Amino acid sequence: MPSFPNNNSPHCTMSHHSKGSSSRKRPARQDIQEQRRALPIASAEKKLVEEVLKNDTLVVIGETGSGKTTQLPQFLHAGGFCERGRIGITQPRRVAAVTVAARVAEEMEVDLGQEVGYSIRFEDTTSAATVIKYLTDGMLLREALLDPLLHNYSVIIVDEAHERTIHTDVLLGLLKAVQKRRKAVKQEPVTETRQFDSSKRTAISKHSENCNQARISHLKLVVMSATLDAEGFSQYFDNARTVYIQGRQYLVDILYTYQPEPDYLDAVLITIFQVHLEEKAGNVLVFLTGQEEIEAVERLLLERSVHLPVGSLKLTVAPIYAALPCNQQMQVFKTTPRGSRKVILATNIAETSVTIPGVCYVIDPGLVKARIFNPRAGVESLSVMPVSKAQALQRSGRAGRERPGKCFRLYTEDTFYKLEDASIPEIKRCNLASVVLQLKALGIDDILCFDFMDKPSSTAIRKSLEHLYILGALTDEGKLSDPLGFQMSRFPVEPLYAKAVIISCEYKCSAEMLGLVAMLSVESIFYQPRGKLEEAKAAKQRFLCADGDHITLVNVLCAYVSEVEKTGNGHVPGKGNSRWCKENFINGRSLRRALDIYRQIERYLPGMGLSTVSCVEEWMLFCRCLTAAFFLNTARRQPDGSYRAMSSGQTVFVHPSSVLFGKKPDCLIYNELVCTTRHYIRNVTRIDSAWLPELASQYFVTKLAA
Ligand code: CDP
Ligand code: MG
Fold first, then answer.
1. Percent of the chain's residues with pLDDT above 90
2. Other C-beta atoms lying within 10 Å of the C-beta of residue 575
3. pTM value?
4. C-alpha distances in angstroms, 514 versus 6, 508, 547, 683?
5. Is the complex ipTM higher than 0.85?
6. Phi, psi of 623 (to 5 degrees)
7. Contact at 8 Å (CB) between 441 and 292?
8. What spans are recorded as compositionally biased (Basic and acidic residues) (predicted)?
9. From CA 131, how far away is CA 524, in angstroms rounded?
10. In angstroms, what is the span from residue 222 Cα to ligand 2's centroid?
């Protein structure tokens, strides 16, 4: 039970960053243009346009919610910057790209996909008319493969730079180089793209040459950040000029628990109801770690809210996370009707990337899900870990954007002071294989000398080169191999999955492998509500394959596709398919997204001379293909019943959610390592160990001999 000191208690910690006047009130129904004019950034329009004109690179710092992401592109558009190319705004998160583009289209009164559009992995709404383009940082890196000097753009805004995602860091290095080269191209209008020439690229180079002639110009760069550590960015860009946007922040009371919470989800629920019953109107923003958790809390909230006392405010729930369909993402921005309170359940996308109006209360368990990579062992895992102080401050700040608010931290004050000051840039804690492959594909061969803002350790770089070499993407000289490495760099999925899809064509099971990769790209396909555990388990039996989780996942997708075909509902959410999902305890949202991803990846095949073929339930072929693709993730049973991961030597356990949990086959292939109390392997399939030296000879002959 969380116990918070009340406001008058001496334990209450008040934040002291109240700026601006608290007398500012927003009329309930404000015209959208009025809302724009009321944003803190509005008065800086002229100055910002001038600064971008004067400086090739500009660093813009401004508090979250001040209007940077939605307004600056519009200012530059009005200032004539779209005459020689597009304005690109990169976002670390898909949700931000989608929701902000929709908002800006609304503000400019155009249809989304016309002047304003977005492009994220597996979804592109832009057209030839698009001049303001929101895209994920990863997508801009992919565009650079086709257009190395990014000639389509006159301005690139790297937004949310403080998040320091791995793609943002690579992008900063790349943009710095592109900027220099575009300047050079101007004096000497010979295409530089030839440098990347290979027989396969002729068409692309020609395309770029045309662009060169059409619009050679300097590339303007704006780096935007919500935190004050601008110096690093400015220094990296040769002491670039920095502009600060004055924000507005009301007082936020910060309340801690007296004791650590043993069950934070339970504490979340109790705190939500406590706020709902005791506090004035105003929306509640809750930070959770992922889709699964959000969905569980959503269900429990709806279940329990029927017991609210008569006459209390109505409680509505709005989830927001990356995999949520676009139309549902926009729901959180809808105005809350009078007499009701909205509870927004968000991942840390609501920390700085998206600002949701009307939030006065923040509930923060202080956790975040992040990827961590151990370069020595070569293992990457997904872990829930404590946030940094900077993140905790950002989160609490979300409560004080429109009026004074409260933040409930579900941990003790002592714990807060023990948090790290800031999180480590992702590039220093992630598997680099994917970005190294992309840099290689961009013609940057010497990764160790690449101008990173924060250099990853040379061990990490070497490990990723080794990983790509073992997968066959690099030659002995460290160049991209032809065709495998080249093809792998084109697929919009992790190198390991890209390779799986490519080789599955040889194994005559590409339909199943595409399905698997799509299913592995989404979270939580099966759900098991409390109280219906047995029913849910029985439902899963219908799809179960005794060989393991991979085939089971493929079975689910196949069953769904035949259901869609049978009911003739097409790929539409709702209707009969949802009933089917419900009956089978399948997460319909995740499944629909998986099917979308399947179709998206499939489109890449014909261009590479590959095609979709099904093994028609000859599962041996598929399992052999799994072995040939994922041999780096093999685990062998030990005499004590545990498993040992062959590449790292680590002791691992089959995850309880696996169909192989409790069965003890001799040798396994797995896809994911999850670290909680133990190292669990998830998505597991039984294989014949005798296949290893045959299907992954270059790796296992040496490994087994050692
Ligand atoms: O980028 P920054 O954090 O400085 O602010 P922004 O994302 O440009 O947000 C400016 C304003 O637009 C905020 O008041 C948001 O609540 C609002 N907004 C919205 O109402 N709907 C969206 N889909 C996106 C932003
Ligand atoms: Mg922003």
1. 62
2. 12
3. 0.82
4. 54, 12, 19, 16
5. yes
6. -65, -35
7. no
8. 28-37
9. 37
10. 13
